[in-house]
């Protein structure tokens, strides 16, 4: 059976490439995208079938329909589809769009899984939060999990509202790390290090710290303590971070991201 993607942007492409790496046949993947450049790239580089309109889809021949468009585009696209076959698994990766709203736009269709992947999916190192409505059976849950697992790890949440927290922590999270690495590189250069060396130091330190944290049996506080010698350089740096209440600022930032996800969901649900 065919997997169809409505939207062929970066995240859709990451998922498609992950599926192909895991054995999905190219001929069983379809994409709908009206952007000529996107369509041409997918056709030439991945040998995909790219359609110009959802009207060209044969819904009876599709096992999974993935909405991979911007949240603002989803209401009109979903409303424009005909009544979906009950067994058709729908996966939405549109931030903030609730399953209730999507179900209404899809004329009551309830076989819906909502997913929040993040950009490291582009290299197969993402993590996705998943939530399923009551209309999704175990087989369809496993199908959705398999699809998102093609680009990284998967976690399930029991309450849909938890996806707003997932969005704030892991969906937006890569930008927080990129920001910190950017600032560290700038500071390293201001201390006299050449740009190339500063960048290499920061990137490898971030990579090494992440690998150590993921492979070590120690908790994050223990790992931090092991780097922090009494009266040493790390202690001096962390003292400043604590004095300036950086942890509280980070909490405010993440809460702001969650609030924005909630607001987006409320606004779109009214359409």
Give an account of the 3D structure.
The protein is elongated, with a radius of gyration of 21 Å. It is of the alpha/beta class and 271 residues long. The chain has helices at 10-21, 36-46, 74-80, 99-105, 138-149, 162-171, 173-190, 195-215, 220-227, 233-243, 246-269; strands at 2-6, 29-32, 49-51, 62-67, 89-92, 112-116, 126-132, 152-156. Helices cover 52% and strands 14% of the residues. The longest helix is centred in the C-terminal third of the chain and has 24 residues, at 246-269. Helix 6 crosses helix 11 (246-269) and helix 7 crosses helix 8. The chain has two domains: 2-166, Rossmann fold, CATH 3.40.50; 173-261, Orthogonal Bundle (ProC C-terminal domain-like fold), CATH 1.10.3730.10. It is built from eleven helices and eight strands. Strand 4 (62-67), helix 3 (74-80) and strand 5 (89-92) form a beta-alpha-beta unit. It starts with a strand and ends with a helix. Strands 3-2-1-4-5-6-7-8 form an eight-stranded mixed β-sheet, with helices on both faces.
Q: What is the topological layout?
A:
Blueprint: E1 2-6, H1 10-21, E2 29-32, H2 36-46, E3 49-51, E4 62-67, H3 74-80, E5 89-92, H4 99-105, E6 112-116, E7 126-132, H5 138-149, E8 152-156, H6 162-171, H7 173-190, H8 195-215, H9 220-227, H10 233-243, H11 246-269
Parallel strand pairs: 1-2, 1-4, 2-3, 4-5, 5-6, 7-8
Antiparallel strand pairs: 6-7
Helix pairs in contact: 6-11, 7-8
């Amino acid at each position: 059976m065919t997997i169809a993607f409505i939207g062929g942007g970066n995240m859709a492409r990451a998922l498609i490439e992950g599926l192909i790496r895991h054995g999905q046949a190219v001929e069983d993947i379809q994409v709908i995208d009206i952007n000529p450049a996107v369509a041409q790239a997918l056709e030439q580089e991945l040998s995909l079938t790219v359609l110009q309109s959802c009207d060209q889809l044969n819904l009876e021949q599709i096992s999974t329909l993935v909405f991979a468009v911007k949240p603002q585009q989803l209401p009109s696209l979903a409303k424009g589809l005909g009544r979906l076959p009950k067994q058709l698994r729908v996966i939405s990766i549109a931030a903030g769009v609730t399953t209730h709203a999507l179900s209404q736009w899809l004329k009551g269709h309830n076989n819906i899984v909502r997913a929040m992947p993040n950009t490291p999916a582009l290299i197969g190192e993402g993590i996705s939060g998943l939530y399923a409505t009551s209309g999704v059976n175990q087989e369809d849950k496993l199908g959705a999990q398999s699809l998102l697992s093609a680009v990284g790890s998967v976690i399930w949440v029991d309450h849909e509202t938890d996806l707003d927290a997932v969005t704030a922590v892991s969906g937006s999270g890569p930008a927080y790390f990129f920001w910190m690495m950017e600032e560290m590189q700038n500071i390293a250069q201001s201390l006299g290090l050449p740009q190339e060396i500063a960048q290499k130091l920061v990137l490898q330190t971030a990579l090494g710290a992440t690998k150590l944290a993921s492979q070590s049996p120690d908790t994050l506080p223990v790992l931090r303590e092991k780097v922090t010698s009494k009266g040493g350089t790390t202690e001096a740096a962390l003292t400043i971070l604590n004095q300036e209440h950086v942890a509280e600022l980070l909490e405010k930032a993440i809460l702001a991201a969650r609030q924005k996800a909630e607001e987006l969901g409320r606004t779109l649900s009214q359409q």
